[in-house]
Amino acid sequence: MTTFKSTHHTARKKIVIKLGGSTLEGLNEAFFSNFKKLQQQGYDIVITHGGGPAINRELEKQNVTSTAINGIRVTSEDAIGIVQSTLVGKVNPGLVHELNKASINAIGLNGFDGNLLESEFLNKETYGFVGKIKKVNTDLLNQLIEQNIVPVISCIGATVDGQALNINGDTVASEVALAIGAESLLLVTDVAGIRIEGEYQQEATEELINQWINEGHIYGGMIPKVQGALQVLNAGIPSVQIVNDSLTGTTILSKELVK
Ligand SMILES: Nc1ncnc2c1ncn2[C@@H]1O[C@H](COP(=O)(O)OP(=O)(O)O)[C@@H](O)[C@H]1O
Ligand SMILES: CC(=O)N[C@@H](CCC(=O)OP(=O)(O)O)C(=O)O
Predict the structure, then answer these.
(1) Which HAMAP family would you find in this protein's record (predicted)?
(2) 13-258 — its CATH code?
C-alpha cells in the first residue's frame, strides 16, 4: 500500500510571537532555544514587536511629550515621525540582527512594505496619529513563511494616502494572529504573566480579566495585551499566553476550554 504524504495540502501551524519593547534590550538564550524548538516542532513563526522604551527615550531627547490612555499612546504630529523612525529605523533592524545572529532567517517589515498593514485613523481627535488595522496582507506573510523566512513586523500602519500611523504592538500582534489563522499567540513581555496582588496567575479567563481591569489590578501596558488576547480568543484561537522571554507566564483560555 502506498501512503501519500503531502505538506502542500496540510495547513501549516503558525504562531505569532510579539516581543514587547521591554524585552528587546536583551533577549536571553532561553528565548532563542525555545524559538528554535518551536520551529523544529513544525511551527511557522511570525514576529511582531513594540518598542515603547526606545520611543520614550527618543521623544524625551527631542522634547516631545506624550500621554497614554489605557496603554495606547496619544500620538501628536511631532511624535509620529519619531515613533516611525525609532521603530522602523532602529528597533526593527536591531531585532532582525539579533535573530540573524542566532541563525534565524529573519526579514524586517513595517505596515508600508507590500501594503502589509493597511490602516486608518483610530480616532484622530482622541488619539492623534494612531491607527487601526483594516487589512493585513496575509499573502505576503504566507509567501515568506513558506520559504522559512521569519517576518519581523514593526507596529507602524499605513493609510491609503501613505500616512504612517502608530499602532500598539499588542494590537498588531492580535490582528496578525487573527488574519493568518495562527494556532497560538505569545505576548512576550518583562513580567512572567498577569500578576494579581503579588501572585502570578497561571491561567485566566475572560471573566476574571474583566474583573481585574475593573478592580484596577490590570492597568497600563497590560491592558492592550489582555484586550488583544480576548479578541483573539473570541475569534476562535484556543489560547493566548502572556510570558517573559523564557516563555513562562499566564495562559488565557477561551470559555470552551475552561469548562
Ligand atoms: N496585573 C498585571 N500584571 C503584570 N503586569 C502588569 C499588570 N498590570 C499592569 N502591568 C504592567 O504591564 C507591564 C507590561 O506592559 P508593557 O510595559 O507595555 O510591556 P511591553 O513593552 O512588553 O508591551 C508590566 O511591566 C507591568 O508594569
Ligand atoms: C499606539 C501605541 O500605543 N503605540 C505604541 C507602539 C510601541 C509598542 O506597543 O511598544 P511596547 O510593545 O513596548 O508596548 C507606543 O507608541 O508605545
Answers:
(1) ArgB
(2) 3.40.1160.10
